[in-house]
Structure formats: C-alpha cells, structure tokens
Amino acid sequence: MIAVTYHDDLNEVQGDPALAALFARQTAPFDRLEWFTGMAEECAMTPLFAVARAEHAAAALALTAAGGHPRALTNWYTFRWRPLGDDLALLTALAVDLKKRAWRVTLAPLPAEDGSATLLATAFRAAGWRGALEQSDVNHVLLVAGRGYAEYLASRPGQLRTTLKRKAGKVRVALHDSFDVTAWADYEAVYAASWKPEEGSPAFLRRFAEAEGAAGRLRLAIAYSDGRPVAAQLWTVEGGTAWIHKLAHIEEAKSLSPGTTLTAALMERVIDRERVELVDFGTGDDAYKRDWMDAVRPRYRLDLFDPASPRAWPHLARAALRRLARGNARV
After folding, report:
1. Cis-peptide, bond into residue 310, ω within 30° of zero
2. Could you read off the pLDDT of 212-239 as tens digits, one per residue?
3. What contacts 228, CB < 8 A, 6 or more positions away?
C-alpha cells in the first residue's frame, strides 16, 4: 500500500521520521533539507514536498507550486535537482497523484549520470503524463581518477600553466575552512566590485556558507593585493566531491590573474589533501571552465503535461511539432 502526502510546512518535513531518514542519506548540498529551508525562508519560495510512502520506504519530490504548475524547488545556486529516493513504484505513485492538483509539472536541471532524468521520465510516462525530456544546460566536471595535483596540472592547457608560473606570488591567498565574518565581508566586497550580476540572494548564500563552515565543509578563498581583497571563491567539499559555487574578481586586478591563482590553490588542496574524486563546476558553458575541467555532462528539463486537462492541449500540440522538427525524445 502506497500513501501520498503533501507538505508546505518544512517543520512538518523535519519532524517526519521517514523523511528524516531519507535526508540523512544525502551527501550533496542540493539534496539536504537545509537547502530547501533556506530557499523558503530567504528566497520567498513556497515549498511543496510531495511524498510517497510504503511500509519500509519513502520517496519525495521537492517542488514549488503555483497555478497548478509545480516546478522543481531550485534557485540561482542549484547545480542540479533530483528526486529524493529512487524507488520507481513510489515515484510513479507520486506522478499519478499529482494529477489531482496539477496540469503541468516542470523538473530541471536533471542529471543523467545517476539515472535521475530517465527514472523520472519513466515514472511520469507510466502515470500517463506526456511531454518532452530535453537538454537545457551543461555541467563541467573534473574526474580526478587518482591523479595528484602535479599530474593534473601537467594536463592543463599550456597558456594556463604559463599564467600560473608568471603570476605566482603576485597575490596572497587566505583559505578558510570555517565561516569568518571578516573573510565573508571581503568576499562580498569583491563580488560587488566584480563583473558579476547582482547576487540572487545574499542572505541565502551567507546562510549556506555559515552552515557549511559549521559542518567543516566550507572552503572560502580570498586573494589579496597590497592588503585589498581582489578575488574570492566559495567551494564546499562533501562526499568525495568539491563543489565550486561562486567565484569573482575585481576587474582592475585582472592583470594579476588572482582568480587563476585561487583556483589553482583550491585545486591543489582538494586533490592532494582531501583526495576528492570529482570537482564540479556547476552549470553553464563558460569558456574558462574548460581550462580546468575535463568532462561535460548534460542537464535536462522534463516538461510534463496531463493530456486530460484542456489547459495542456495547446502545449502538447506545440511540443509535438517541436519534436518532429528537432527529433528530441518523447516522454
């Protein structure tokens, strides 16, 4: 017997033993309850946790719902989104029950390498939903494959290695494993003076950095020139993966290549000292990521419609025409 429930109160979710056990198994920031709570409280997002339970198992989808169109609960800082739990029967039951409150469901950015994209497409197809699974982004990663930092660096482009040699010692690097108020102020000063767009939610990011620092997962690096912060990077390390969340530098300090120096220092740290298996540079196909990473993974959007709903019919018709034109996968 499978029971499906919905929760918009995250205190309710936190107090549920089955869900607590589900969250306890997660080893990435984007799968933890604290991540979703931060979005609800700092980014003005209304959560909707769809949960399916059987006697000894549970699965959940972290969604945000409005107007009968639930979406994956994500924000500017989310690398990827996936179901919590991989039981196909439970996820199919969720997909069936969602028809009671939704005419459309959009899930992204979905990873393919762990089977999440295929698993969800299969579950929703079995539940009678129709739509398309399409690539929406890319994810640059480094597969360390047992290499040390020196061997890894030797495989990087010659121009990058030359830059590191020429700029060595031009800036002072400070690395923080715990949250430091002064270092965070320096990070914010660098970001504000950089070429980057306005921060999506400074309060969310600080909250995340504080929590990661308390857990020992934070790696916050600041580069200084003549005592002034000129570049900053925010990484975390967890479950054998180093996640590169944020990086910025001040344009007038570009000639010093402070960002390159910081990335190299952090790479050496996570490869030689922390022995990570993977470095994840998040989403986006920025050219500079190719200098440091050696593999590209797709990220997908699963856009689903209930064919029994008249609101879905125009969308399904347009989707069918796009599939014919592009040859994309049908769900």
Report:
1. no
2. 999 999 999 999 999 999 999 999 999 9
3. none
